[in-house]
Amino acid sequence: MLAGCMLMLxxxxxxQQSDLVRQEKELTAKITKLDQSIGxxxxxxxxxxxxxxxxxxxxxxxxxxxxxxRFETIQRRLDDVENKSGARLNVIEKIQHDQANLLKxxxxxxxxxxxxxxxxxxxxxxxxxxxxxxxxxxxxxLSRALTDLSARVxxxxxxxxxxxxxxxKSVSSVAKAxxxxxxxxxxxxxxxxSKSGKRDSRPGGSxxxxxxxxxxxxxxGPAPTPAVVAAExxxxxxxxxxxxxxxxxxxxGDLEGARKGFSDFLQRHPxxxxxxxxxxWLGECYxxxxxxxxxxxxxxxxxxxxxxxxxxxxxxLKKGFAYAALNxxxxxSSALKQVVEAYPRSPEATMAxxxxxxxx
Length: 360
What we know:
mainly alpha, Serine Threonine Protein Phosphatase 5, Tetratricopeptide repeat
């Protein structure tokens, strides 16, 4: 048994030894082949290295030199650019520094100017406030003055309205007087004609009538009669007609035509009983045209030249109004006081008192 095992072990060892020999041969063949391959690869590498050294290395070195030259050129350019940039930066920094200084100077100057301007504005504001206060006071005074003036205007309007009513009454009375004068003139003419007819029927008148008829001529008219005086003492004829036309022109608002008419009337009939009235209406024409200086002279002439005229109180009153229109309060007050003192119960005195209260 043991021998069999030894035999089997011996056979197994032989088999393993043969395998080892075989494997050694194979390994040797592989190593030989590998050595050949390595030799070939080394020869090829050496050949390529030689080719590289002989051909490509000089070209590579040339390219390397060119690259180095380019690099140096680029480096120099970069240095130049850096230098130029540094110089420019220095210039820019200097410019910025100068601008900063200028801006600071301008800012400081502006601040000073703003401070001065603020002071000026403050002073102007104070002055303006003072002026505004003064203007407010002036406006308040003007407002009060306007209120007073409005009240005066209302009172003047009332007085003027009353005065115009009085004037219209006077005009109406004059017109009635003129119409009555004309009627009386016609009555007197008719009376004269009837008396003439009776005289013709008396003895001696028939022969005159017969001779008239035989001659074929109309009988001569009555001799001119003297001026007939109406109820108010207004003379008839051309004198009364001229006065009535001028007064009608005044009523129609034709102040210039009325002024010329009354002036012409006073020149032609200075001693007429209507002269005082004409002188008063002449003053009214000037007053209506706002020629207060001429109006005062015309009203004053009523009192001086025609002291017995019924228009004296009205003339004195309107003279005071004219002075007031000229802002001459002293003379206006004096004239109005004269009306009150001389004619205390007249309508003109009442209006004069109202005007005096306004002037105060």
